Amino acid sequence: MNEAGRARLDRMGEWSALGKHREELGEVHLRELFERDPGRAERYVLRVGDLHIDFSKQLVTDDTLRLLHDLARATGVAELRDAMFAGERINVTEGRAVLHTALRAPADAVIEVDGENVVPAVHAVLDKMADFAGRVRSGEWTGHTGCRIRTVVNIGIGGSDLGPAMAYEVLRPYTARELDFRFVSNVDGADLHEAVRDLDPAETLFIVASKTFTTIETITNATSARQWLLDGLGGDETAVARHFVAVSTNAEKVAAFGIDTANMFEFWDWVGGRYSYDSAIGLSLMIAIGAERFREMLDGFRLVDEHFRTAPPEENAPLLLGLLGVWYGGFFGAQSHAVLPYSHYLSRFTAYLQQLDMESNGKAVDRQGQPVAWGTGPVVWGTPGTNGQHAYYQLLHQGTKVIPADLIGFARPVAELGDELKAQHDLLMANLFAQGQALAFGKTADEVRAEGVAEELVPHRTFPGNRPTTTILAGELTPAVLGQLVALYEHKVFVQGAVWDIDSFDQWGVELGKVLAKRVEPALVEGAEVPGLDASTAALVAKYRELRGR
Ligand code: F6P
């Protein structure tokens, strides 16, 4: 038992039972599982909102599922979930509540943190965002010289960039096409340069998005953007108020930067950066798609929140997806998880999920600070199909690694495509279905031989199959469906963190690099001595200075 009264995961009977079950399954093939149980295609499907989730091509049986649910019960997943929804401080290392679910709660909900209902404040900010977004969209909000805003540039990084940037791409067909949106994150000056080089400052609005308002990349880029604006508008400092707004939890720092706090959109320390794009961090998105669509997206989130909170375990989609990840990580040695959306609009979805999953569950000590003896978060990766098929799918099909994958697709192409482009949609989706089939069932050596392939080539042309996938289908990629998808993954990540007994809501692992970068920078610029610099890095710094001509 640990201090929280929970047995260590690897000492739980439910964990050992899964290990034993895994041994019994041995090398069982999906072909065999389907032969033994043809009904699994109908049975192994879950439905949440618009999402049809088919997990029949997963290497599981009814026994596996029963044992995984036993593990979820033994590890207290439901209790931790309820504590999260109730606003308890489940982020133990930072002593914070974890309430991204409050961001999409209905106006009449009551969710308390320290005895205060946070829902009215959430809706007040949403209303303020809606008012501002409406004014930018209509042209009522003008720049310093009276011009209407044509381009919105979001400056932020990590959770203050990936969410809005991803969602803007996903929902492009719903955006005000007469406005242009750009996202600047990298401290590499090239990012800001490319974003603004063809812009007119008089028509540009910057949103500085930073939960802490101390993130060096964002403050550096925002400072440079401010200079660019002032250079372009003749240096009148009063211009800043018409061209810069902020999204932050830190009013003091926002004011110190020179942004009028009347133009600050607030959120709260109980929203983690990677869980924040449905807060004010989504301001750029709301300007792009309008308040109504934004609220539809929030409705999508809420639908999955309610499902996660109330659906019985056997029907609970985030619970199932989380447990499948625990299964492969714990008992198949899977190191990574591929997310393969068959939608061009989801091109940044996996990058978004990388932060959500890897910053949450990339931990090696449990909630009590003891080293874990089990694998935790996987490497999450992937790009839209069909592009990946012509690049890395070779390894998925014939490589030596187990890589569970999610295939995500939509029945209908977006409405604004012309008929000819709409017709391409069936080919896109045929590829999704074909890949799921090929990964699961492969092609045996006998099947290859029957095609008359020369014997020496048979091993090369055999597909082992047995590569697990989940297929997630929806009718159309709408704002509500995006909300559903994101909430599905948020809660999946939660489930895995709960089973692994790690704090999914801190991110101490990013701190060391930040501190060292601050220490190294003077060495690069002035050749200053850096105390304690290791020999390898010191040599690299010297080489850099030589190549830089210093
Ligand atoms: O360095 C990691 C991190 O703290 C992320 O968790 C966060 O999303 C990102 O930096 C940006 O932080 P902020 O919104 O405070 O600028």
TrEMBL record:
<dbReference type="InterPro" id="IPR018189">
    <property type="entry name" value="Phosphoglucose_isomerase_CS"/>
</dbReference>
<keyword id="KW-0963">Cytoplasm</keyword>
<comment type="similarity">
    <text>Belongs to the GPI family.</text>
</comment>
<comment type="pathway">
    <text>Carbohydrate degradation; glycolysis; D-glyceraldehyde 3-phosphate and glycerone phosphate from D-glucose: step 2/4.</text>
</comment>
<keyword id="KW-0413">Isomerase</keyword>
<feature type="active site">
    <location>
        <position position="514"/>
    </location>
</feature>
<keyword id="KW-0324">Glycolysis</keyword>
<comment type="pathway">
    <text>Carbohydrate biosynthesis; gluconeogenesis.</text>
</comment>
<dbReference type="InterPro" id="IPR035482">
    <property type="entry name" value="SIS_PGI_2"/>
</dbReference>
<feature type="active site">
    <location>
        <position position="390"/>
    </location>
</feature>
<dbReference type="InterPro" id="IPR001672">
    <property type="entry name" value="G6P_Isomerase"/>
</dbReference>
<keyword id="KW-0312">Gluconeogenesis</keyword>
<dbReference type="GO" id="GO:0004347">
    <property type="term" value="F:glucose-6-phosphate isomerase activity"/>
</dbReference>
<dbReference type="Pfam" id="PF00342">
    <property type="entry name" value="PGI"/>
</dbReference>
<protein>
    <recommendedName>
        <fullName>Glucose-6-phosphate isomerase</fullName>
        <ecNumber>5.3.1.9</ecNumber>
    </recommendedName>
</protein>
<dbReference type="InterPro" id="IPR023096">
    <property type="entry name" value="G6P_Isomerase_C"/>
</dbReference>
<feature type="active site" description="Proton donor">
    <location>
        <position position="359"/>
    </location>
</feature>
<dbReference type="InterPro" id="IPR046348">
    <property type="entry name" value="SIS_dom_sf"/>
</dbReference>
<dbReference type="InterPro" id="IPR035476">
    <property type="entry name" value="SIS_PGI_1"/>
</dbReference>
<comment type="function">
    <text>Catalyzes the reversible isomerization of glucose-6-phosphate to fructose-6-phosphate.</text>
</comment>
